[in-house]
Automatic annotation (TrEMBL):
It comes from marine sediment metagenome. This is Radical SAM core domain-containing protein. Its cofactor is [4Fe-4S] cluster. InterPro entries: Organic_radical-activating, rSAM, rSAM_sf. Residues 1-151 form the Radical SAM core domain. Keywords: 4Fe-4S, Iron, Iron-sulfur, Metal-binding, S-adenosyl-L-methionine. The keyword Iron-sulfur applies. Pfam families: Radical_SAM. One of its GO terms (molecular function) is metal ion binding.
Length: 151
């Protein structure tokens, strides 16, 4: 399950995942993890693999980027990693999340997640979401950030 933030429709997502599991379909979900643990825990019952996006380890910068702090997200990552295999994804936003300090802090964080932590995936920044922001009447705060070159 992916697209938007799946946990915002946690009851619907749980129902779909439950049906998939009843049909022996492998299930995975991508999330930012900004959701009450009680809701996440219900979803995890039907998940085989969880992708967590961690935008930034510094809560202040995370809030600048996303509008929310990261404490709830990091707690959910810790709890979920005790239940299901996890892949951490880091969008590399030039000038924000691509610093050595942030990447080292993320590596230190995931080093303590245990055996269910599988790997980190680095996602190059892109501007595909600008149109969605415009359609929603929202301001795209990163409009001046350039995607990385092909190199």
């Amino acid at each position: 399950v992916s697209g938007g933030e799946s946990t915002m429709q946690h009851e619907f997502v749980t129902a779909i995942l439950k049906k998939c599991k009843s049909m022996y379909v492998h299930t995975a979900m991508e999330t930012c993890g900004y959701v009450k643990w009680e809701e996440m825990e219900k979803i995890l019952e039907y998940i085989d693999l969880l992708y967590f996006d961690i935008k930034h380890m510094d809560s202040r910068i995370h809030k600048e980027l996303t509008g929310v702090p990261n404490e709830l997200i990091l707690e959910n990552v810790k709890k979920a990693s005790k239940m299901r295999p996890i892949i951490i994804r880091i969008p590399l936003i030039p000038g924000y999340s691509d610093s050595e300090e942030n990447l080292v802090n993320t590596a230190k964080f995931v080093a303590n997640l245990g055996d269910n932590f599988l790997r980190i995936e680095l996602l190059p920044y892109h501007r595909f979401g600008i149109g969605t922001y415009e359609q929603l009447g929202r301001i795209y705060e990163l409009k001046d950030v350039e995607p990385p070159s092909e190199e």
